[in-house]
Amino acid sequence: MSFVVLIIQETQYKFIKFNTDDYSIYINVFMQGYKLEKDSDIIIDRSIDYIVINKSIITEEDKKILNMLYLPIIGPLPIMLYNMLLNDLDKLQLVSDVSIHAKLLSNLHISTSELMEAKNMLEAIGLLKTYIKEDMVNNYIYELYSPVSAHEF
After folding, report:
1. What's the predicted TM-score (pTM) here?
2. Cα(3)–Cα(26) distance, integer angstroms
């Protein structure tokens, strides 16, 4: 199976086609220059770009687990954010197209501080990792992970 991925490089965009076997090599090259975002004081600007990387297969069963087990603990906003990021990916897509935080904030009807709080909650429970590249243009990468099974929960 082969697919096309959009690469962001200093405000230039290019598409690359590669085979599934090359995925881990591509992600490692793509992530160069990005660091794990751990500073909860960083405020996301509406104009900053982001992409979503699907790090696991998220099934319908996973979505049920999110709603039945995670939702009562972390609340609706982090679950809505997770679903919005998941919706940025097509079913078979491993890496989303570039999007902008303004769209995310508008669709969720939330402020940047509420987004940060929801993002931090998802990171705390292992459903999300955030990477940032600080240079001429700030770019975020959100890695989505599937929830643990009901048995593991």
Report:
1. 0.74
2. 12
